[in-house]
Please model this.
Amino acid sequence: MRKKIIAGNWKMNVKPSETAALVKGIAEAVKDCPDVEIVCCTPAIDVPAAVAAAAGTPIGVGAENCHWKESGAYTGEISTGMLLDAGAKYVIIGHSERRQYFGETDETVNLRARAAIAAGLTAIVCVGETLEERDAGKLNEVIVRQMEIGLKDVSAADCAKLVIAYEPVWAIGTGRTATPDQAQEVHALIRATLAKLVGADTAETVRIQYGGSMKPGNAAELLAKKDIDGGLIGGAALKAADFAGIIAAAQSK
Ligand code: PEP
Model:
């Protein structure tokens, strides 16, 4: 049984001074959801405030990126040790916005993911195709490449600290959601690819989230699919009631 995991990706949207109110609002809105792992991934500068506000609640806190070196001359970067020191337990790696705007490659995804896992953070590694790639019939090729390179040298034991997020780029922030069948098809491909990389038994234990315009109104049917083990949520994670609605949908699955 894989525990459902619902994670918010706040992106660059919430100030440190606004963080406690959102975390507390989510904690108050979430009613009795013991079967769901709840995470807020915040801008790095919000992590301390989020951790303080989440104390005593079931909410875990994560960041949106980390560097692979522990320290040094990497102006503007954040190390895994810094995130852990601030109380983060999760980190998103390789979000499509980082791939699109900040030069993230499958190779740097691999470096960041391995560093995060080695440090003891849970790495939420994002994969997903653009609309052009899907329309060109390259969906499978893209997903398999992102996984083979992004997860190179990630061992079966490392998978205890690994979550994969399938985020079709065309569904992120667009209001356009993959249908449950479309999402399930790719989640099954991701699990089959994981089985080749780390073995079938381990692949069965890894949670695979869907991300892309997930909302309270469409979460239940996505989360009902066999290989959809949670959600990575952008816009709807910024409203406590909407995020709690998705968590409630995950609890009832
Ligand atoms: C995301 O950015 O990870 C995401 C899924 O965004 P949204 O839910 O807004 O589509």
